[in-house]
Amino acid sequence: MIRSGFTGVIALLSMLSAVPVAAAQIEERILAVPVRVQGPDGQTLAQDIVVTVFEEAGRSSYPLLVLNHGRHAADRSRLRRARYSQAARFFAESGFSVWVPTRIGYGASGTAIDAEFAGPCNNRNFARSFGVAADQVEQVIDTARREPRIDAQRIVLVGQSYGGATSIAVAARRLPGVVAAINFAGGGGGNPETRPGEPCSASISTATFGGYGHNTRVPTLWLYTENDRYFGPRHSQAWFAAFQANGGKGEFLLLPPFGDDGHRLFTRGFEIWAPLIQRFLREQGFSR
Q1: Phi, psi of 95 (to 5 degrees)
Q2: CA 287, chain centre distance (Å)
Q3: What residue numbers bound the domain in which 155 lies?
Q4: Span 18-67, pLDDT tens digits
Q5: Residue 51: what are its φ and ψ, rounded to 5°?
Q6: Number of structural domains in the chain
Q7: pTM above the 0.90 mark?
């Protein structure tokens, strides 16, 4: 299902209650999680990555939510330690144990090797690149499963930009316990300075998302904006259409323009997206 423009968004928001004010204590801790992936030249990369965990204090059991970051190809050190603290706390207040991995090659988990390098602009291997990110998410999930307080039968995947595409890639693996995925402005190959709205190898992205549709059987929610300077609407809509045409279950929301670049909605537009996410999570059986 595709919804677009102001009318659909306003109708959705009018049916939803306001986001509650947090009252509980949210604890934040840092873990080192060992992962192993294959680099772009076939080399094995094995190291600990930094994972930040947010939880509401006092619960005896938590469903798991893995929150996946985007990609800063030009300066991967910029990410430092991935936190998305406002979003992470929102999900923690909804009862989840929120795990935010900083993947190999980025910030606090940095290496000289760009493990997710996908190739030249005209021939990006997104399946391999998203797959390297997905491998790490899968290993983080395996680590979380071993903690007794984690309800391993209720796992949600969430991601921004490259992390959004990664979340769909992981959902396609049909891992036990994964029940839903949320994709904020997901994709790859975008550059707002040199190719505004026109990502590299967009047709390859379409084929990649179509492939994920063959295997994804959990509900997914895709959120994009009309003025995303990384991925213009004709591309994001084509990606979802390919996913859905191949059997993927999902809802696509094309939201109105946000600021000067709608790609920033996840980090700067919390008041807009939080009620939409609350609604989706309630539909999947998550409620306080």
Answers
A1: 105, 0
A2: 21
A3: 2-283
A4: 444 445 799 999 999 999 999 999 999 999 999 999 999 999 999 999 99
A5: -125, 125
A6: 1
A7: yes
